[in-house]
Amino acid sequence: MGQAPVIGEASDRLARTASLTSGIRRLRYVSGAREEALERLGMTRVRDLLLHVPHRYLDFSSVLPIAMADVGQDATVVARVDRVTLKRPRPRMQIVEVSVIDDTGVLMATFFKQPWIADQIQPGDMVALSGKVTFGFGFKQMKAPFHEVLGGAEGSGSYTRVLPVHPVGEGVTAAWMRRIESAAIADAADVCDWVPATIVADHRLMTLARAIRCVHFPTSVAAAESARRRLAYDELLSLQLALLGRQRLELEGIQATSHTVDGTHERALVSALPFELTDEQRVAADEVLADMASPRVMNRLLLGDVGTGKTAVCALAVAAVADSGTQAAVMAPTSVLARQYADKLGPLLDEAGVRWALVTGSTPPDERSRTAAALAAGELDVAFGTTALLSDDIAFHALTLVVVDEQHRFGVDQRLALREKGAGADMLTMTATPIPRTLALSVYGDLSCSRISHRPVAGAGVSTQVVTPENVDIAYGAIRDAVAAGRQAYVVCPLVDDADPGEELDEGLDSSAPRPHSASSTAAELSERVFYDMRVGLITGRLSSVEKDEVMASFKAGDLDVLVSTTVIEVGVDVPAATVMLILDADRFGLATLHQLRGRVGRGHVSGLVFLMSSARKGTPARKRLSALESTSDGMELADLDLKLRHEGEVLGYRQHGGVTLELVDLAADGDLVGAAHDDAVAILEADPALSAPTHRPAAYEVRDRFGVYFEEVGEA
């Protein structure tokens, strides 16, 4: 008798869970123009709407009287509108000034280029204003604050609840979004939890149904954060399952090669190295070689800052392939870096008896044909190259190791295409981009990870100084002094030319801000006016492989004094005579990119000087990033700071390569969740590789829905 309500409740829950993939039209208040507006925001299904979480909250329990709102601090005030004025100080410039009062004082809110606010807010309305308090013209002010109309003065009452503020767009106001979310939660949010109850309990997480309700309409800001963390964990766990599941599916039925380690070629290479391996390099090499010797396919990521010796580890892996009688492919993102691999490792491999070749877009046709024939016949042990290695005319006799440098610069399909040239080939990916552990786990969760933290040869070091456009002559003087002493310099620009749309910039191009420097215009100006008596060269990603190789060869040979470039020199370029670098509009780059760029100087016996030119004002986030570079050369410390300041996709630079973007996770704050989700995913798949157990089948559907990764036992829904 007592069972019937429970069964009925469970049935309703299952029905609501199944309805999450239904279209949003089934929800109340969603039809016509409103449905189209929601779809423009990326919401087509019920679950999309439920996971469209607020991006901020107004906490009316901590509302301040106007008199207590400190200048220079963020604050939320609730007050009555006294006057609304629309001004047009000049053509195409419209300003709305809203004067509000409470029992303690007056505050002026100013809105730019939003004339419709003059119709939304009326004298007598109670409004909430949230923003930074400033002072001017005798009044406390807020410029472009978040605002919410709360009703007439008679309905002011007490504001102790937490008001969610959802991201909205044209056709849906914040108030309508709350109404739609409230209806959706009432009708569809009481869903089954796809995460096993033991995991939810172990991590003291909210249930899914409670988290959905609480993240949209919390009783406190703390409760909202707890709800967000539960939803963030869901995102991380499903991502980890997807990454590990995809790896399992890719390798299913594939026979790995158990490579020979500590063989003749490997020992000869160790003897040929001009230095002793450091403890960290030896540990990393042992981890790589142990994976290669095992009967399982290797998937390993080698993290190491500039100059930590990742190339030496790569060389040992290549030598082990030669000892096994098979072949390796080393793919770099640029022809400059691919050629540098050949220049650095070629002589060492020659001494160790390892046969190698270089394949890039600039390789002459006859040489390329001979190399392709030698690879197909097994007469070469390793090929260094760019994406030219992916071409149909390049085939391997027995490819068993694929090394990809700076893997985030390649698309997933490119990496897989190279690996498909050798069934069961081991994969070693390397990056010099400083990546915090949480970010590495979340994006490369399917890879084992090795890390080299310290540079065995520190070089003479680098000092970094921020300069403004007004005192950039300091940098020009340093460049002149360096060239006079027989050394060289780089000048780095954000854009290629004046027509560059700036798609690669961290924050894009802002039409209201001065246009960043382009390499082509800067090279012309420097050669004609500033360094007219010097030899100035230009290199950008727009040049052909042949042209880039020619420019770099001239610079390395000392035929150029100053090389103007884009970030094409960011990775791997090694010219010891280059000791000064000027980076123009440095605030347009991320910390990791700037750190990589400055790693190009100070590599020899003369200390490097790096000048970061920026017009960003002191105290701004952009200037704080640059100041951090002045104070530390620790790549990992900078990477952690970069992650706090920017989205993980921008840190990695993979926006143009289809990388994973986490919507609900704050990697800077959710480090514990990242590690927990990874460990949980590993444990789940070790116990149930196909996610076929009843406890795990909901997880299989979740992973398929979020990331399109199918597990064997999951059929069509």
Task: Walk me through this protein's architecture.
This protein folds into 4 domains: 3-55 and 178-192, no CATH class; 57-164, Nucleic acid-binding proteins (OB fold (Dihydrolipoamide Acetyltransferase, E2P)), CATH 2.40.50.140; 264-452, 3-Layer(aba) Sandwich (Rossmann fold), CATH 3.40.50.300; 462-632, 3-Layer(aba) Sandwich (Rossmann fold), CATH 3.40.50. Helix content is 39%, strand content 19%. The chain has 24 helices and 21 strands. The strands form 4 sheets. A 7-stranded parallel beta sheet has the order 11-12-10-13-14-9-15, with helices on both faces. It has a 6-stranded parallel beta sheet with strand order 16-21-20-17-19-18, sandwiched between helices. Strand 13 (399-405), helix 14 and strand 14 form a beta-alpha-beta unit. Helix 7 packs across helix 8 (221-251), helix 8 packs across helix 23 (671-687) and helix 20 runs antiparallel to helix 21. 44% of the residues are buried. The model is unreliable at 1-7, 154-158 and 649-659 (pLDDT under 50).
Total of helices: 24
Strand tally, please? 21
What is the mean pLDDT?
85
Spans of at least 5 consecutive residues whose pLDDT stays below 50 are 1-7, 154-158, 649-659
- State the share of residues found in helices, binned by percent: 25-40%
So what's the CATH class of the largest domain?
Answer: Alpha Beta
Strand order of the largest sheet: 11-12-10-13-14-9-15
Cα-based radius of gyration, to the nearest Å: 30 Å
Q: Using the coordinates shown, work out and report the CATH topology of the largest domain.
A: Rossmann fold
